[in-house]
UniProtKB/TrEMBL annotation, chain A:
Species per Swiss-Prot/TrEMBL record: Streptomyces hundungensis
Swiss-Prot/TrEMBL GO biological process terms: amino acid transport
The family this protein is said to belong to: Belongs to the binding-protein-dependent transport system permease family.
Record domain ABC transmembrane type-1: where: 19-207
InterPro entries the UniProt entry points to: AA_ABC_transptr_permease_3TM, ArtM/GltK/GlnP/TcyL/YhdX-like, Ectoine_EhuD, MetI-like, MetI-like_sf
Signal peptide: none
Encoding gene, per UniProt annotation: artQ_1
Main location: membrane
Subcellular location field: Cell membrane
Protein name: Arginine transport system permease protein ArtQ
Pfam families tied to this protein: BPD_transp_1
Membrane topology: Multi-pass membrane protein
Alphabetical UniProt keywords: Amino-acid transport, Cell membrane, Membrane, Transmembrane, Transmembrane helix, Transport
Taxonomic lineage from the root: Bacteria, Bacillati, Actinomycetota, Actinomycetes, Kitasatosporales
UniProt cross-references to NCBIfam families, sorted A to Z: ectoine_ehuD, HEQRo_perm_3TM
UniProtKB/TrEMBL annotation, chain B:
NCBIfam families in UniProt: ectoine_ehuC, HEQRo_perm_3TM
Its membrane topology: Multi-pass membrane protein
Name under which the protein is recorded: Arginine transport system permease protein ArtQ
Record bears the keyword Membrane: yes
Any matching Pfam family: BPD_transp_1
Species in which this protein is naturally found: Streptomyces hundungensis
Keyword Transport among UniProt keywords: yes
Domain of life: Bacteria
Annotated ranges, domain ABC transmembrane type-1: 14-203
Spans traversing the lipid bilayer: 20-38, 50-71, 77-98, 157-176, 182-200
GO cellular component: ATP-binding cassette (ABC) transporter complex
Keywords: Amino-acid transport, Cell membrane, Membrane, Transmembrane, Transmembrane helix, Transport
C-alpha cells in the first residue's frame, strides 16, 4: 500500500467541480425542504380530516422509505410519464421532497411549542389568519427550530452522495470517475471522505452555538 | 411481474435486507453502548477518543464510508471484505456513532442523586451501571433508537450500489427485465414502508415492557 500525493493533486479539478455540485444540491434541496415542510406542517393543522389524513400518510410514507429508492423511482418513472428532468434536477427534487417530511415534523413541534396565550392574544386583537401566522406564530416558532433545521441540512449534506446512484456528478461520483480513469481509488475516495468531515464538523459546531443562542 | 421474478430476486432481496438490518443493528448496538459508556468515563483520554470516534463517523457519509471500506481498505490492509460484510461494517460503525449520542444522553438524563445513592451504598461501578443507571436509562433510549433503526433500515438500500443483492438491487434487475419502473419501484417502497411499520410497532411494545419493569405506565 502506498499513498500517492500526485493522484491527490490530479483529482483536485474534478473534486472542485464535485464540491460545487454538492453545495448546489444542498442549497436548493434545503430551500425546497424548508418551504415544502412548512406546507406539510400547515396541512397537519388543517380543519378537515380529509386533508390531515392523506398528508399524514404521504409524509409518513416518504419519511420511512429509503431516499435511494425514491431517487430511482423519480429518475426512471418520471420520464415514463413524459416528464423529462436532468439527473441533477431529479436528485434535487427527490432530496428536497424527502427532507421536507423531516422538516415538517420540526415545524410541527415548533408551532406546538408556541404558548397558547399567543394564539389567544392574536384572537383578542382580531388579527386575520395570515397575520396571526406570519407576524405572531411563525417568528417565534422558527427561532426555536432553527438549530433542528440546521441539523437536517447537515444530514442532507451526508445524503448527497446518494445522487451518485443516478449519475449526478457530485463529490462521490467525481471520485469514482477519477478512480475509473486512473485505477487509483484510494486517494480520491479518501479525499472525499475527509472533505465530508471537514464540512460537517464545523457546521455541527455552528449549529450547536446557534442552539445555545436561540433556544432558551 | 411474473412469479419467477418474485421467487428469484425480490423475495431473496427482502431476506438480504432483513439480514443486513439485523446484523448491522447488532453491531451498531454494541458500538453505541461501548462508545456511549466511554463518553461518561472518568479518564479524559477515553472520553476524548470516544468523542473523536462519534465526530468522525457522524461527520462522514455512510455511502462514502461504504465505498471506502470496499475500494480503499483492500489494498490498504491486504485483505478484502465480502460486500455484504463491508456493508454491515459501514452501517454498524456509522449508525453506532449516532446511537452513542443517544446512550450518552439517556445516561446523563438519569437523576444525579441515583448515581450518588449508588456510591453511598458502596456498589461497584459495574453494579451501579447494571442495577441503577441502565434500568432507568434504557426506556429513555428506546424511542430515539426506534427512529435510528428505521434510518438504518433505509440505509441498507445503499448496499445495492455496491452490488449486494438486497431488495433495492432486485428492483433494479426487475426494472431491466420488465421495462416497467413504476410498478416495481412502487412495490419496493411499500415493502420498506411495511418493514419500517413493523419496527415502530415492535419498539413501542418494547418501550411499554421496559417502562412497566420500572413501574411507569406509558400514556
Amino acid at each position: 500500500m502506498n499513498w500517492d500525493w500526485s493522484a491527490v493533486w490530479d483529482f483536485m479539478p474534478r473534486f472542485g467541480d464535485g464540491v460545487l455540485t454538492t453545495l448546489q444540491i444542498l442549497a436548493l434541496g434545503s430551500l425546497i425542504s424548508f418551504s415544502l415542510g412548512l406546507v406539510w406542517a400547515l396541512a397537519f393543522r388543517a380543519p378537515s380530516r380529509f386533508v390531515r389524513w392523506p398528508v399524514n400518510l404521504i409524509t409518513e410514507f416518504i419519511r420511512t422509505t429509503p431516499l435511494l429508492v425514491q431517487l430511482f423511482f423519480l429518475f426512471f418513472v418520471l420520464p415514463e410519464w413524459g416528464v423529462k428532468f436532468s439527473a441533477l434536477t431529479t436528485g434535487i427534487l427527490a432530496i428536497g421532497l424527502h427532507y421536507s417530511t423531516y422538516t415538517a415534523q420540526v415545524y410541527r413541534a415548533g408551532i406546538d411549542a408556541v404558548p397558547k396565550g399567543q394564539w389567544e392574544a392574536a384572537t383578542a386583537l382580531s388579527l386575520p389568519a395570515h397575520r396571526t401566522w406570519f407576524a405572531v406564530i411563525l417568528p417565534q416558532a422558527v427561532r426555536r427550530i432553527a438549530p433542528a433545521l440546521g441539523n437536517y441540512v447537515i444530514s442532507m449534506l451526508k445524503d448527497t452522495p446518494l445522487l451518485a446512484g443516478i449519475s449526478v456528478l457530485e463529490m462521490l461520483q467525481q471520485s469514482r470517475l477519477a478512480g475509473a480513469s486512473t485505477f487509483q481509488y484510494t486517494e480520491p475516495l479518501t479525499v472525499v471522505g475527509v472533505a465530508f468531515i471537514l464540512i460537517a464538523y464545523p457546521a455541527s459546531l455552528f449549529v450547536r452555538s446557534l442552539e445555545r443562542r436561540l433556544v432558551r | 411481474m411474473t412469479a419467477g421474478l418474485w421467487q428469484h430476486w425480490v423475495l431473496p432481496g427482502i431476506w438480504i435486507t432483513l439480514q443486513l438490518t439485523v446484523y448491522s443493528s447488532a453491531l451498531a448496538a454494541v458500538v453505541a453502548f461501548g462508545v456511549g459508556l466511554a463518553r461518561t468515563h472518568r479518564s479524559r483520554l477515553v472520553r476524548f477518543l470516544a468523542a473523536a470516534y462519534t465526530e468522525i463517523f457522524r461527520g462522514t457519509s455512510a455511502l462514502v464510508l461504504m465505498f471506502w471500506l470496499f475500494f480503499v481498505l483492500p489494498p490498504l490492509a491486504g485483505w478484502q471484505l465480502v460486500p455484504m460484510w463491508a456493508a454491515v461494517l459501514a452501517l454498524g460503525l456509522s449508525y453506532g456513532a449516532y446511537g452513542a449520542e443517544i446512550v450518552r444522553g439517556a445516561l446523563n438524563s438519569v437523576a444525579p442523586a441515583q448515581r450518588e445513592a449508588g456510591i453511598a451504598l458502596s456498589l461497584t461501578p459495574w453494579q451501579r451501571l447494571r442495577l441503577v443507571l441502565l434500568p432507568q436509562a434504557v426506556p429513555e433510549m428506546i424511542p430515539p433508537f426506534c427512529n435510528l433503526l428505521v434510518e438504518l433500515l433505509k440505509g441498507t438500500a445503499l448496499v445495492s450500489l455496491l452490488g449486494v443483492g438486497d431488495v433495492s438491487f432486485a428492483a433494479y434487475l426487475v426494472r431491466l427485465a420488465t421495462q416497467d419502473s413504476a410498478q416495481i419501484y412502487s412495490v419496493t417502497l411499500v415493502i420498506y414502508f411495511v418493514l419500517a411499520f413493523a419496527i415502530t410497532r415492535g419498539m413501542k411494545a418494547l418501550e411499554r415492557r421496559t417502562k412497566a419493569n420500572l413501574g411507569v405506565s406509558t400514556p
